[in-house]
Amino acid sequence: MRPRHAAHVWEDAADSLAQRDLAPSGFRRLVVVCAHPDDETLGAAGLLRAVAAAGGTVQVVLASDGEAALPEVAGTDRAALAGTRLRELADALAALEVPATVHRLGMPDSALRTDELTAALTPLLADADAWISPWREDPHPDHAAVGRACAAAAPVSAHGFGFPIWARTRFDPTDPVVPWDRAYRLRLSAADRAAKHRALDAYVSQRTVPPGGDRPVLSEATLAHFLGSREIYFREPPADGAPPELFAALYRDAADPWDVRTSWYERRKRAVLLAALPRERYELAAEPGCGLGELTRELAGRCDRLVATDVVDEAVAVTAQRVADLPAARVFRSDVDDPRALPDGVGLVVLSELLYYLPAERIGAVLDRAAAALRPGGDLVVAHWRQWPAEAPADGAAVHRGIVGDDRFTPLVEHLDEDFLLHVVRRR
């Protein structure tokens, strides 16, 4: 058993170590998966309130009814305790002013299995655009099982987050297992904190000493860890990256799914990228992941030859048509780590909004290939949205830190604003 820590240390760590604030207003359907009733209030009351206040829907999935919460008390009527805890959950949600739908899986408390949970959760998470659960590394085995199952069951298009519960009382926040590089904090208003306090008051069975027992499950000292002004969430990105089929479907459903032709963000990003190129002209350039070819067309005006590739047939077809009148541009289908996408002797490589969609080992392989393909003195440009797309295994900022710190390259240009970050590095 790890030692307990003062209630404030995790809040202090959230302020100093978490690099992002969670913005839940865009979560239109949030699925909250709990091992037991009260997980939702201890770890995520503020988020539930924020989503509901923004007009989103909240669905709570209970893996168990929490019937084994008092294992040390002889003679506990588990069926009765389960009924009590379900009523307490309803009262807690009312106190939070969150009109949530509750799904009960009825699995055994203190014996949850990841494989069974994954199968049960898959249909419930299918249409979610965000899910949260106890953190997969939380020291309670039921919490860990739920966190692992959510990550396995959720669609790649859903934002996923784990929230620490018993970790806040038993782990030092500086423990290496705590992934602050993936951490978000949610700041709670005075009204949020008061509602959370009322909701926790609803869990009478957990806050009072049971007959025959000697302590409550949730003591005042324990509750102090959860009644502060910060909630903490760890991003749970998809491990395998975004499949090409996902992007193909987006292109089939909408001619321009990211508004690359018209949005100010996209137009400004292209203008900044082109202005950041250190040379007026390049003999040979490569643009893997060319998308719909808007940047391709402008790059072609700065190159004698340009190789533009994409793994999605629909994107290749549109880009080929977009640059059909530009003899400098050659467009074909190729994955990003195919040598044809990054030919030897290239003087410029542009990777825009691409790398964070790849798992870590593929990011490394692409950078290895780019370093091998670039001639000495050649330039590599990387640009990414500052938010973290649901489908992306990696955060753009982390990707850029790795590239800037790569001793094969010399940093030349850095651009950072509220929307995107861009770096130009030169091959040594």
TrEMBL record:
Pfam families: NodS, PIG-L. Keywords: Zinc. Transmembrane segments: none annotated. PANTHER family: BLR3841 PROTEIN (PTHR12993:SF29), N-ACETYLGLUCOSAMINYL-PHOSPHATIDYLINOSITOL DE-N-ACETYLASE-RELATED (PTHR12993). This is LmbE family N-acetylglucosaminyl deacetylase. It comes from Pseudonocardia saturnea.
